[in-house]
Amino acid sequence: MPEIILASKSVHRQELLKNAGVKFIAQSADIDEREVETPLIEAGLSGEDIAEVLAIAKATEISKNNVDSYVIGCDQTLSFEGELLHKVKDIQEAQRRLLQLSGKKHQLNAAVALVRNSEVLWSHVEVATITFRKLDPGFIGRHLSGAGEKVLSSVGAYQIEGLGVQLFEKVEGDYFSIIGLPVLPLLAELRKLGLVE
Q1: Which of 95, 116, 146, 179 gives 20 to 30 Å between its CA and that of 68?
Q2: Its pTM surpasses 0.70
Q3: Which of the listed CATH numbers 3.30.479.30, 3.90.320.10, 3.90.950.10, 3.80.10.10 matches domain 4-192?
Q4: DSSP characters over 49-77
Q5: C-beta of residue 168 within 8 angstroms of C-beta of residue 133
Q6: Which of the following is catalytic: 75, 90, 136, 174?
Q7: Euclidean distance between CA atoms 18 and 13, whole angstroms
Q8: CA atoms 13, 116, 44, 126: torsion sign
Q9: Pick from 15, 48, 14: which is nearest to 28 by CA?
Q10: pLDDT tens digits, residue range 2-30?
Q11: Is residue 75 annotated as a catalytic residue, yes or no?
Protein backbone atom coordinates (compact mmCIF):
# COMPACT_ATOMS: atom_id res chain seq x y z
CA MET A 1 0.00 0.00 0.00
CA PRO A 2 1.44 3.41 -0.94
CA GLU A 3 2.34 5.68 1.94
CA ILE A 4 -0.06 8.46 2.92
CA ILE A 5 1.43 11.64 4.40
CA LEU A 6 -0.52 14.39 6.13
CA ALA A 7 1.29 17.68 5.50
CA SER A 8 0.20 19.17 8.81
CA LYS A 9 1.39 19.39 12.40
CA SER A 10 -2.18 20.05 13.61
CA VAL A 11 -3.10 17.54 16.31
CA HIS A 12 -6.78 18.07 15.47
CA ARG A 13 -6.31 17.12 11.81
CA GLN A 14 -4.16 14.15 12.78
CA GLU A 15 -6.82 13.00 15.25
CA LEU A 16 -9.60 13.28 12.64
CA LEU A 17 -7.68 11.08 10.20
CA LYS A 18 -6.62 8.62 12.90
CA ASN A 19 -10.23 8.32 14.15
CA ALA A 20 -11.33 7.61 10.56
CA GLY A 21 -8.92 4.65 10.43
CA VAL A 22 -6.52 6.17 7.90
CA LYS A 23 -2.91 5.00 8.29
CA PHE A 24 -0.59 7.94 7.66
CA ILE A 25 2.50 9.73 8.83
CA ALA A 26 2.54 13.48 9.58
CA GLN A 27 5.13 15.91 8.26
CA SER A 28 4.95 19.66 8.61
CA ALA A 29 5.34 21.61 5.36
CA ASP A 30 7.94 24.34 5.55
CA ILE A 31 6.32 27.14 3.57
CA ASP A 32 5.83 30.81 4.40
CA GLU A 33 2.04 31.08 4.24
CA ARG A 34 2.00 34.89 4.33
CA GLU A 35 4.46 35.02 1.43
CA VAL A 36 2.28 32.66 -0.63
CA GLU A 37 -0.99 34.41 0.15
CA THR A 38 0.07 38.08 -0.21
CA PRO A 39 0.02 38.14 -4.04
CA LEU A 40 -3.23 36.15 -3.99
CA ILE A 41 -4.89 38.75 -1.76
CA GLU A 42 -3.54 41.53 -4.00
CA ALA A 43 -5.01 39.70 -7.01
CA GLY A 44 -8.42 39.69 -5.29
CA LEU A 45 -8.74 35.93 -4.75
CA SER A 46 -11.41 34.76 -2.32
CA GLY A 47 -10.73 33.16 1.06
CA GLU A 48 -11.80 29.81 -0.41
CA ASP A 49 -9.33 30.08 -3.30
CA ILE A 50 -6.50 31.15 -1.00
CA ALA A 51 -7.15 28.21 1.34
CA GLU A 52 -7.05 25.86 -1.66
CA VAL A 53 -3.79 27.32 -3.01
CA LEU A 54 -2.19 27.01 0.46
CA ALA A 55 -3.37 23.40 0.87
CA ILE A 56 -1.89 22.52 -2.54
CA ALA A 57 1.37 24.38 -1.75
CA LYS A 58 1.81 22.44 1.52
CA ALA A 59 1.12 19.07 -0.11
CA THR A 60 3.40 19.86 -3.06
CA GLU A 61 6.24 20.89 -0.74
CA ILE A 62 6.14 17.54 1.09
CA SER A 63 5.59 15.60 -2.16
CA LYS A 64 8.92 16.82 -3.60
CA ASN A 65 10.88 14.63 -1.15
CA ASN A 66 8.47 11.68 -0.94
CA VAL A 67 8.33 9.88 -4.28
CA ASP A 68 5.10 7.95 -4.93
CA SER A 69 3.56 8.93 -1.57
CA TYR A 70 0.07 10.39 -1.49
CA VAL A 71 0.31 13.71 0.34
CA ILE A 72 -2.70 15.38 1.95
CA GLY A 73 -2.39 19.16 2.28
CA CYS A 74 -4.86 21.24 4.30
CA ASP A 75 -5.44 24.85 5.11
CA GLN A 76 -8.14 26.96 6.67
CA THR A 77 -8.78 30.66 6.19
CA LEU A 78 -11.24 32.91 7.98
CA SER A 79 -13.15 35.48 5.89
CA PHE A 80 -14.67 38.34 7.85
CA GLU A 81 -16.22 41.47 6.36
CA GLY A 82 -14.15 41.32 3.20
CA GLU A 83 -10.79 40.50 4.74
CA LEU A 84 -8.78 37.46 5.79
CA LEU A 85 -7.99 37.12 9.47
CA HIS A 86 -4.96 35.15 10.73
CA LYS A 87 -4.11 33.30 13.92
CA VAL A 88 -3.73 35.50 16.97
CA LYS A 89 -0.35 35.75 18.71
CA ASP A 90 -1.42 35.94 22.36
CA ILE A 91 -4.41 35.94 24.72
CA GLN A 92 -4.79 39.75 24.53
CA GLU A 93 -5.12 39.51 20.74
CA ALA A 94 -7.55 36.58 21.19
CA GLN A 95 -9.67 38.84 23.38
CA ARG A 96 -9.73 41.52 20.68
CA ARG A 97 -10.56 38.89 18.00
CA LEU A 98 -13.56 37.55 19.95
CA LEU A 99 -14.82 41.11 20.54
CA GLN A 100 -14.42 41.77 16.80
CA LEU A 101 -16.46 38.66 15.90
CA SER A 102 -19.08 39.21 18.63
CA GLY A 103 -22.64 39.33 17.25
CA LYS A 104 -21.43 38.88 13.67
CA LYS A 105 -20.99 36.21 10.99
CA HIS A 106 -17.76 34.91 9.48
CA GLN A 107 -16.80 32.13 7.09
CA LEU A 108 -14.30 29.36 7.68
CA ASN A 109 -12.86 28.06 4.41
CA ALA A 110 -11.36 24.58 4.86
CA ALA A 111 -9.35 23.24 1.94
CA VAL A 112 -7.84 19.82 1.35
CA ALA A 113 -5.68 18.64 -1.55
CA LEU A 114 -4.14 15.35 -2.59
CA VAL A 115 -0.79 15.44 -4.38
CA ARG A 116 1.44 12.63 -5.67
CA ASN A 117 4.86 13.20 -7.25
CA SER A 118 4.15 16.97 -7.25
CA GLU A 119 0.99 16.47 -9.33
CA VAL A 120 -2.30 17.69 -7.90
CA LEU A 121 -4.71 14.75 -8.09
CA TRP A 122 -7.66 16.37 -6.35
CA SER A 123 -8.66 19.35 -4.20
CA HIS A 124 -11.80 20.45 -2.39
CA VAL A 125 -13.00 23.40 -0.30
CA GLU A 126 -15.82 23.43 2.28
CA VAL A 127 -17.21 26.70 3.60
CA ALA A 128 -18.90 26.99 6.99
CA THR A 129 -20.70 30.11 8.21
CA ILE A 130 -20.56 30.81 11.92
CA THR A 131 -22.67 33.40 13.71
CA PHE A 132 -21.33 34.58 17.05
CA ARG A 133 -23.73 35.51 19.81
CA LYS A 134 -23.29 38.96 21.36
CA LEU A 135 -20.47 38.67 23.89
CA ASP A 136 -19.52 41.08 26.66
CA PRO A 137 -15.85 41.66 27.58
CA GLY A 138 -16.29 40.05 31.02
CA PHE A 139 -17.57 36.82 29.51
CA ILE A 140 -14.76 36.82 26.93
CA GLY A 141 -12.17 37.17 29.69
CA ARG A 142 -13.69 34.29 31.68
CA HIS A 143 -14.02 32.18 28.53
CA LEU A 144 -10.37 32.65 27.55
CA SER A 145 -9.27 31.94 31.10
CA GLY A 146 -11.08 28.58 30.91
CA ALA A 147 -10.12 27.75 27.30
CA GLY A 148 -6.46 28.66 27.77
CA GLU A 149 -3.73 29.07 25.20
CA LYS A 150 -5.17 26.30 22.99
CA VAL A 151 -7.20 29.05 21.30
CA LEU A 152 -3.96 30.42 19.81
CA SER A 153 -3.78 27.41 17.47
CA SER A 154 -7.05 28.38 15.78
CA VAL A 155 -7.59 31.14 13.21
CA GLY A 156 -10.78 32.24 14.98
CA ALA A 157 -9.32 32.08 18.51
CA TYR A 158 -11.86 29.39 19.43
CA GLN A 159 -12.30 25.64 19.22
CA ILE A 160 -15.78 24.34 18.46
CA GLU A 161 -14.91 20.93 19.94
CA GLY A 162 -14.32 22.56 23.34
CA LEU A 163 -15.53 25.62 25.24
CA GLY A 164 -15.67 27.57 21.97
CA VAL A 165 -19.10 26.11 21.25
CA GLN A 166 -20.47 28.53 23.89
CA LEU A 167 -19.56 31.49 21.68
CA PHE A 168 -21.95 30.68 18.84
CA GLU A 169 -25.55 31.47 18.05
CA LYS A 170 -25.63 29.47 14.81
CA VAL A 171 -23.33 27.15 12.84
CA GLU A 172 -23.97 26.34 9.17
CA GLY A 173 -21.61 23.82 7.63
CA ASP A 174 -19.60 20.67 8.11
CA TYR A 175 -18.32 20.06 11.66
CA PHE A 176 -15.09 18.37 10.50
CA SER A 177 -14.30 21.30 8.19
CA ILE A 178 -14.72 23.72 11.07
CA ILE A 179 -12.14 21.70 13.00
CA GLY A 180 -9.89 22.05 9.95
CA LEU A 181 -10.24 19.09 7.58
CA PRO A 182 -13.12 18.16 5.22
CA VAL A 183 -12.85 14.47 6.15
CA LEU A 184 -15.87 13.06 4.30
CA PRO A 185 -14.92 14.28 0.79
CA LEU A 186 -11.29 13.27 1.48
CA LEU A 187 -12.31 9.74 2.51
CA ALA A 188 -14.45 9.44 -0.64
CA GLU A 189 -11.43 10.38 -2.77
CA LEU A 190 -9.10 8.00 -0.88
CA ARG A 191 -11.65 5.19 -1.47
CA LYS A 192 -11.72 5.98 -5.21
CA LEU A 193 -7.94 5.59 -5.27
CA GLY A 194 -8.11 2.33 -3.31
CA LEU A 195 -6.17 3.80 -0.39
CA VAL A 196 -8.87 3.08 2.22
CA GLU A 197 -11.76 0.59 2.29
Answers
A1: 179
A2: yes
A3: 3.90.950.10
A4: HHHHHHHHHHHHHHHTTSTT-EEEEEEEE
A5: yes
A6: 75
A7: 9
A8: negative
A9: 14
A10: 899 999 988 889 999 999 999 999 999 98
A11: yes
